[in-house]
Amino acid sequence: MPITDSFDDTSPEIIHARDLVDAVPGFPDVAIATFATRTLALMRDEFALTPLTIIEDGTGHIDVWAYDDPAGHRFAVYGSPMGAPFAVTTLEHLVAFGVSKFVFFGECGVLDASIPSGHIIVPTSAYRDEGTSYHYAPAADWIDIPTAAKTQQFLRDAGVPHVAGKVWTTDAFFRETRAVVERRRQAGCIAVDMECSALAAAAAWRDVSVYQFLTAADNLDAETWDSRVLGKMPAEPRLAYARVALELARRIAT
User: Fold this and answer.
1) 11: which of 44, 45, 208, 215 lies 20 to 30 Å off by Cα?
2) Residue 56's pLDDT band (boundaries 50, 70, 90)?
3) CA separation (Å) from 214 to 8, 17, 52, 125, 166?
């Protein structure tokens, strides 16, 4: 059976995340997730995060932190694993705890060299070049990001420069060949990531909201790969993106 036939909405799931987690009273309904461990470490110190719970996923554990902001909101904050399968598995755990709204942010590669390093990118739709989404949504090349317009409006209101457009979600960044990059560019993709399409599919299936923004790191739109700021971003920009994520979380919490 090809992966495009994997979606099944006619029979019950055998395992559900709610069978694996213990209830935490008063668990926040909004979560903020970063894919960068260094960013999370900075957030723990800068925002005085406190332990909330631990997710045990069979391969280790993921610490989930609480942030109590001055306006009275409480948010869950965690470092999401990279890659569609683990990112969605962790999202499933958070949904089981009671989260209904998520803000995800992380780095991406650009397919348009005119997008400067560090610029914020809002995905409007994603090409599904990963396997996870095909278990959460009927087969299709693309999936829309229904929260994109609200994310863009927030960034405009906040005066945060950004660009919006299609992205390409892949499972295998070491297999981003020149020909495939060109095909994705021709299809209108301006960036490549590893989670966007799968998170959108899982969110739709679980009836939760996922808001996503990416930050331009490396550049694939060149004769040779340009790493730019990939893995080299200093602390202050990392915290600046975290503050954007926190402000977005405040917006959707109200």
Assistant:
1) 208
2) confident
3) 30, 27, 26, 13, 12
